[in-house]
Amino acid sequence: MALLDVLGQRWTLRLLWELGHGSATFRVLRARCEDVSPTLLNKRMKDLRELALIELGDNGFTLTDLGMALVGKLASLDSWANDWADQLAHRQQLK
Q1: Is 66 helix (H, G, I), strand (E, B) or coil?
Q2: pLDDT tens digits for 25-65?
């Protein structure tokens, strides 16, 4: 599945998640994602723009309607992941 290939690329999910909190410039994204190299960040942002998930405006990068819809779906996954982590922690306590 093409979407999973894209989302599986390093930093892609994190960048989408960060933009889900609002627009951000390249510099701000770089600061939020300290370990990402400028070259890789530039590549990921270019890829996400080509996929119509983000756009570059006066206030920096922002999610498109498609990007916002995707991040909304990721929020459900985040909720599930938190429940899963809680259950794992509970199982560890029982051991």
Answers
A1: helix
A2: 999 999 999 999 999 999 999 999 999 999 999 999 999 99
| Cβ proximity of 54 and 68 under 8 Å | no
**Nearest-angstrom CA–CA distance, 26 and 15:** 11
Instruction: Residue 53: give its domain's CATH number.
Output: 1.10.10.10
Two tokens, residue 4: 């999973």
Query: Packing angle between helix 12-19 and helix 38-50, nearest 10 degrees?
Result: 70
Instruction: Select from 43, 82, 47 the least CA-distant residue to 67.
Output: 47
Q: For residue 1, name the pLDDT band (cuts at 50, 70, 90).
A: low
Query: Residue 76 in 3-state DSSP?
Result: helix
The domain containing residue 17 runs over which residues?
Answer: 2-94
DSSP state for residue 24 in the 8-state scheme: B
Q: Would you state the pLDDT for residue 83?
A: 95
Q: Which amino acid is at 53?
A: L
Q: How many domains does the chain have?
A: 1
